[in-house]
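Please predict the structure of the following assembly.
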Amino acid sequence: MHLIFQIPELILEGGIIAVIGYTIVFTALLILYYTFLYLGKVLAWNTRRRLAQAGKLSHQETEIEVTGEEAAAIALAIFLCRDLHDDESDVITIKRVSKVYSPWSSKIYGIHTFSR
Amino acid sequence: MNARKKAITVFGIIALLVGLNFMVFQIPGIAEPVSNSTETINNSAPDGVGGIMGGIAKFISYTGFRNATPGHLIMIVVGLFFIFLAIKYEYEPLLLIPIGTGIIIGNIPFFQDGGINLQLGIYQEGSVLNYLYFGVVKGIYPPLIFLGIGAMTDFSSLISNPRLMLLGAAAQIGIFLTLIGALYLGFNMPEAGAIGIIGGADGPTAIFLSSKLANGGIINGVQTQNLIGPIAIAAYSYMALVPVIQPPVMRLLTSKKERVIRMKPPRSVSKLEKIIFPILGLILTTFISPGALPLLGMLFFGNILKESGVTKRLADTARNPLIDIVTILLGVTVGASTQADVFLTGGSILIFILGALSFILATAGGIFFAKVMNLFLSEGNKINPLIGAAGVSAVPDSARVVQIEGLKYDPSNHLLMHAMAPNVAGVIGSAVAAGVLMSFIM
């Protein structure tokens, strides 16, 4: 017994488009992946080189990457240290105000003045 | 209300609508518009009492009550349902409110007999809605939306862990399998391509591609149906239903052990990398798939505006007022394009079924590929396969779903930042796929 399974031409064509299309999408993102994988490495190498030239990087230190969490922790620490409070002189003085008169409770402006 | 009840409500109402649609189109005569005899449209000058009566008759023949068909009423109920979903469950309210209202606007019945053009409907030349719809038909709105998305998106998580880009590529399997499914169900090649893109889970991309491939014109020698409305509605509906569709697939394809995998925290990304990414991304992706230029060009342009740091005003405009204006116009016109006589067809139902399948396949594709990647990754570098589900695009809802699912199994394992990487890669992947389909089919 022969089992003949014939795929309609249009579906076959669709299958070919699907395979090639999927491969192209994968290739595009694969190229982006490798580009940014190596770009990150090149930039890290460049940073390490500049730090070494400036004498800020010891030979033992190889890891210069900072995670987002560490960066957030450092930023919070700096904020708490510097920006949370105003700088104050800590000297509290009471100054006598030269103008002692204030009309806020003056009886001459009361409504009874105009009652007659 | 728990997710199961939500799912039952949503699918129950969809099933009811499908049933109603089936009944309407099976009973002969019921789908046809109420006949308007041309005698009532007498344009002769009024003549005394007879003229007044004729005017009243003419007015009545022009009312929505006189011209209503069951199809109009069904579509108005669908519009109300969208508004209900947006308000009650907050499913993509920024989209579902304009689309739901647009559906009501587009399905207010009016006199259309005898080829008279009152310049009211979205498909009538010269109407205000028709002018606004021009932005959909010519694919103008989607690139503008992409500009805003680009100006909003932070690609840091993707740059810090570029291998997650592959998950965004893997999830595009939904597009290509749906293409084959649509061909199998009898759609022609351009229509199948447009339907397939629903699997990209990206509304603007779906509208862009359907406006090119299934706009009712002749594409590559093949007469196509106008499927922009059904495809857009399906894409946005399923995007809104991502919290309902994805979790069961995620649970089905992953083990408990896999769901609690902790990933390495992403490294901090320098400003230089953030600037280089959109420039290189633009050049590389559009060289490979020039068809995606309108979408990816604008996406990366928006991101350059954001990351350059010197065009804050332009970036603010792109990500706030501009995208809001375009979202309003896009939502309401896409909604209005679902005029019953164009939308309520057997084809639309098939598109909805294929759309649901494509979302499931795309989710499964992303998760499965994450599991495959784990086979080659060392301990400590493994990927939590749940984040593969975010590769379907649907920014940022699918990433949010991953975070919620992850927290269910480990309340201290936050996957959101990791999931954003395949999520934005999915946007790039679906745009590239759209470009590829255009170049193959057009």
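Residues 83 and 186 of chain B are 33 Å apart (CA to CA). Chain B touches chain A through 50 residues (CB under 8 Å).
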